[in-house]
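WARN retry 2 of 3 for item q-0093 after timeout on previous attempt; input resubmitted unchanged.
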Amino acid sequence: MVINMKNILFLATVPSMVVAFNMRNIKMLQDMGYTIHVACNYFEKSAWTDEKLKEYRDVLEENNVVMHQIDFPRKPYNPFKLIKSYIQTRKLLKEVDFEMMHNQSCVSGILGRIAGRKHDMKILHTEHGFYYFKGGPLFNWIFFPFDLLCSYFTDTIITINKDDTKFCEKYMKSKKKVYIPGVGIDTDYYFNTEINKSIMREELGIPKDAFVVLSVGELNENKNHSAILKAISKSKYKNIYYVICGEGVERENLYNLASKLNMTDRFLLVGQKQNVNEFYKMADVFTFPSKREGLGLAALEAMASGLPIITSDRNGINDYAENNKTGFMCPPDDIDGFCKAIETIYEDKELRDRFSLYNIEKSKDFSHHKTDNIMKKVYKEAISNI
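OK item q-0093 returned
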């Protein structure tokens, strides 16, 4: 039986893509009178604990979102799983009369657009970072023909960094292409957070006078946390501590590496934290050595908090990171470069303060006020043409 209401579908491989990046979009559409549905894999545990997955579901339920389970795989290498999730998506689109679909990630974005192409609805797709990028694995170009094909039956493609925007303008065939400066952050929230740094460090077992390097993000190979661990181990300064907020498959490997580098007493994996804003205020510098990023929300949050940032020089990150202005930039595999950058900021408080002031102002270019205004216009235009 087809459900007839004013329905909009958010489609994502995993719920974090919706909860982390789209709750304001959902509220915006609900205020327009729409019932919001979120279809994704609520049980994909490669990066999250059962508690975290339950938390994502709870957030959606508390916001009156209708939830649908689609068994999307995070990695698109199993054809049987892909076929199964495609069939599930087709079934959902037949059961519910959606006026618009907004896709949020690679696998679900391809399968969802293929499944939705014959349905009378608007199809939007936010590209959080093309898998094929300069300096990336050649194998990832396998996604390009699928994205190109899907672009022919996509009404609007939304890109969140300037390199992807240029690529999209050149190759993708959607009716419209829109750039937004990220997914929007609440810069005031991070700037105005206040903590007792000494007490927080004491609770974490970190000396009050230590120099704290912080990273925030999933523990996977792409986030490249091992590069910072190696860089700190090479430093001549032995009161530098490394803290990571995040969970993922690389947890054990990172612990093993820390042991090998004799860093276990200065290395903390604290898991995913609701109070990550307080960790930004506790730290002295933020590191973001990713091999690939659509943009990088955590680095922008750190900037809004007033931290200098040390990043890789990759797509997305280049939209806001500026060498010797926001901090320092290095190739992802440049361990010596990361080490030198950390030591330079460690040694020069005046430089840290200069980076901090610049970053607070720079982060405002990516505030949710700007992104929300653009998305509201995109949604209103799409809906008015239904």
